[in-house]
Structures are given as structure tokens and as C-alpha cells.
Amino acid sequence: MAEEKTTYPFRILYRREDGTQGVYYIKGVYYIKEENASFAVTAFLLQTKNARESVIAVDAACGHSWKRVL
After folding, report:
1. How many CA atoms lie within 13 A of 62 on its CB side?
2. pLDDT score recorded for residue 61
3. Distance between CA atoms of 27 and 22, rounded to whole angstroms?
């Protein structure tokens, strides 16, 4: 039997093309579930077609708060 992968919620803070900052996930802020922060950034870049330099920070859900991981 194949082992199920464990995913965690991440929130990505990025800089838009016009220079303003934005937090983007489903319906206005980017929220993604991946195995780790690096996979979350890669998925974000592939889905949004943004440049890697646009990512400012990545936060992981920790209980009812968010902790900076990248």
C-alpha cells in the first residue's frame, strides 16, 4: 500500500508586478497545502507564473497563528 503524503497549510507573501505587496491565497490570499515550504513556493510559482524574486516570505500554520518559515 502506498503511503499517503502529509501536507501542511502555507501562506505566501509576495510582491506584485506593480510593486505593491500582497498576500494571496484562495479568494484573495494565496493559501496552499504542500509537504514543505520549498514545495509550496514551487507550486505557487507554477500556478501563478510569478518570478521567484516576487516571493517575500512563506508562513506555516501553527495552531491558530502563522509562523515565518522562509
Report:
1. 8
2. 94
3. 13
Specify which residues 9 forms β-bridges with. 33
Would you kindly state where each structural domain of the chain is located, as residue ranges?
A: 8-68
Sequence-ordered alpha helix ranges (H) in 1-70: 37-48
What does the angle CA 52 – CA 40 – CA 14 come to, to the nearest 5 degrees? 45
Which amino acid does the sequence have at 58? Answer: V
CA atoms of 33 and 58, how far apart (whole Å) = 12
Phi then psi for 14, rounded to 5 degrees? -140, 165
Torsional sign, CA 27, 9, 62, 12: negative
pLDDT digits 0-9 by tens, 34-69: 999 999 999 999 998 888 988 888 999 999 999 999
Q: In sequence order, what are the residues at sequence separation of 6 or more whose Cβ sits closer than 8 angstroms to the Cβ of residue 39?
A: none
